[in-house]
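Hey, resending since the last one bounced:
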Amino acid sequence: MSVNGDWVKGASVAERPLVLPVVVAVGTALRFFRIGQQSFWYDEAASVALAVHPVGDLALGRAKDLGNPPLFPVLLHAWISLVGADNDAVVRMLPALFGALSIAMVFVVARRLVSSSAALVTTLLFALAPFHVQLAQETRTYSLLVFVGLVSTWGLLRAFETPARARWWVVHAAATCAMLYAHYFALFLVLAQVGAVVFGHRRDRAVIARAALSFGAAACGYAAWLPALYAQVSTKGNLGRSAESWYLHVAATPFVYGFGTTLAWKHNISGGRLVAAAVGALAFCGALLAGLRVVVRARTQSFLLWWFVVPIAAPLLISVLLFPLYNVRYVVLGSIPFYMLVAVGLDSMGSWARLRAACAAAIGCAMLLSSGSYFTQVVKPNWRSAVRYVESALQPGDLLLFDADNNETAYARYATAPASRLRMMAPPAAGGDPQRFFGAAFAGAPTVDFTTDVLAAPRAWLVLSDADAAAERRYQQLFASWQAEGQTEFRGISIRLFCRTCPAKDSRGDQHD
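The structure tokens again:
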């Protein structure tokens, strides 16, 4: 089934048996290297806060976040029951383990679709990809999703090879069901697999029948979650996580697949980084197009094409035609065939050795620069330092105000000092009094008017993270009559102190990483 080629001289597993173990070892080391360096951001803090609920509540959807299936929270519940939830590095070892296991699985799957040398290059790209290193060091479901997605694909490919052997269909059904319980966007890989079965094996009724049973078994296993799925889908806001920027996520997809978000992204843009990003992206896209050309001409790799196109194109079409739901992290399953096509493209440059070497060097340098930024700089909201700063300056009676739900969840991860914390929300009706404070006392509580509580506090801390311009204007109105005591910036976080009766003082801000 593979696309033939061999441009890495002596790189096959048979000729160089240590190549693959070295790649796996390096990729594994990257996934555990400095794993506790970055603070938890909101999504990670929300994962831990969710995972402490009873397993039954997680499995039945009684305890849930904004809209995710339960497999990762259940596994995280078991993990923190063993190792505790206080140490960031230890908690993150669970997704890092799935990230490490996925490296070998990438090779196992790739060698059934592309040549031996291209499979090794695919595995190398995956092992070094900053995108996957970062996801493996994040307490979210994405590394688990990739792992079970690879197992599902491997089971299906093995079933194609020996369709009469039931065990591979069982592996596929079980892994596909687990994949659906890991993330809702797994459905798009299932659709890709269905397309590959129907159009690639349409003349083999036995394969079609067995595949139908396998997909049916996975669907039956997933049926228990359907009531919770409906409740989440019908909840306003759960489908449009990137409603205002989904098209930017689409444009950034090949770039993020290649270099993650630590090469040239928001706060770390510079001339040199933009040049490295442009050259690296050009090399990646050139190799990708070359790989697509080879695969399309070969007409033997419909499975690879289905896998690459559907997980990306389907959510894109839904975002264009129905409602915005595209997010580059959600389409992480499309990155594996992306690396395979890039590897095949490099493989096809046999008569253009210098061009191939230049592409490989550009890709490698851009990946190295991105990983270097991730491991040596603060790239996530720096909640550890922000909490330490606030708690070192808290006074009795101080009130902490947070912009909506997410900031307080992340702050609470590191908070140790007792203090009153309230979650700011938009006023319940347009045209309301701009001097009144609305919000909730805790996660999930109804929005209420707590103006009296705020006015009773001598000092109020306003903690913002990624607040938009409209929110900034609203806060200026809310605190128009207060004395600004100071403003301090941490990575991704702005902390402002207001006082109602304090003497005037210098309100210039401080900047921190």
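The longest strand covers residues 483-490.

Sorry for the duplicate.
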